[in-house]
Each structure stands twice: as C-alpha cells, then as structure tokens.
Amino acid sequence: MILLESTLNNIPIMGVQTGSELAQLSTAIIDPATLSIVAYVVSGRLLTRHPSYLRIADIRELSDIGVIIDSIDEFIEPGDVIKIDEIVRLQFALTDMRVRDEKGTNLGKVVDFTIDTGSFYIQQLTVRRPLMRSLTDTELLVHRTQIIEINDKAIVVHSQAKAPEPERTEVVGSYVNPFRKPDSVTDTINQAQS
Hints:
By secondary structure, this protein is mainly β. It has 2 domains: 2-90, SH3 type barrels; 98-157, PRC-barrel domain (SH3 type barrels). It has helices at residues 82-90, 185-193, and strands at residues 2-4, 12-15, 21-31, 36-43, 52-55, 61-63, 66-69, 98-101, 106-116, 121-128, 139-143, 147-150, 154-157. The strands form 2 sheets. Strands 1, 8, 9, 10, 11, 12 and 13 form a 7-stranded mixed beta sheet that branches. It has a 6-stranded mixed beta sheet with strand order 5-4-3-2-7-6, covered by helices on one side. β9 and β10 (121-128) form a beta hairpin. The chain starts with a strand and ends with a helix. The model has no long low-confidence stretch (mean pLDDT 84).
C-alpha cells in the first residue's frame, strides 16, 4: 500500500500483548543512502526513556487502528542499534529539503512524500514549487527513479526530458500545399506525382 507519510504522524502504536495503545509515531528516521525509513521516533506516557525508537522490522501490521507491534519491549533506545544511531547522527530531514535539477534550477522544497508500507521505501516526493513557478504548478511529484543525488544542501533530480518532435507522415492522396517549399526528396516526388 502507498501512503503519504504525513498520514502516519501521531497515529497510535498498539500492542498485541496488552491490546492497548503504547505510544504514538512521531518522526521518521530516514536513511539517505537508500531513501528508506529504518525506524520512527516514538512518544508516549508509558515510555521510560526519551528518545525511544521503533524499528520498521518490529512492525507487525499497519491497520486502520494504527501500527501494531508485539509489545512495549519492541521500543529501543539510543545505543541499542548502531546503524540507527549512525543515521540519527546524520540529522537527515527530508521535509523542507531543497530540490534542484541537474542544471542547478531550483524546483522547490519537499513538503511530503509517499512510502510503500510493505518495504517503507520512499516512492515519491511532493515538492512545493517556488513562488514564480507556483503560478502555473503548485506542486511537483518526483519519483525515486528521477533522483540522481542527495547531498547536505539539496536533492538533485533529472531535468525534464526534451519532448520528442512529432513525426511528419504523408497520407496518400492528401493535399499538397503549393506555397510550401519541399524539404525532402519525398516531398519533391509526391509533388511530381500529383
């Protein structure tokens, strides 16, 4: 299932063991190398340590009542998982990050993104356009395959591909414009046959 990440903010985390709400999802911890969510920062009154994290691998299901996990023992703390600690130290925040094309043109800022809930990979970025461009387009969608590079300052994407020029085809028996100069051998032959 594909969801906007903003719809997951502050949704309850339910425990199978107790059948009650244990905490709420807060901020996504995103690995910029793979553009995937590896964990979430969680908040709640039952938590003894702050910050606490919920690894994506510990989520059993994402349902209409919230995120379902086995028990409160699934929450981890800083220092428990080295890979998550390394990613947290990067302080990578996808929201409000600038998006530029490979030519350096500013395309806008990331305001939201969609995730695949099966893998928690980020699929598309929703980019709010700069003021002058927002008169024609208010938002731009960027698929993960269009991303070339993610650095400290911006996300670099492929510039728009040049639209292919339409092919000109002659229909047999079609009208030939006598004022147009022939631009190919085919046009000259067609005019001679008419």
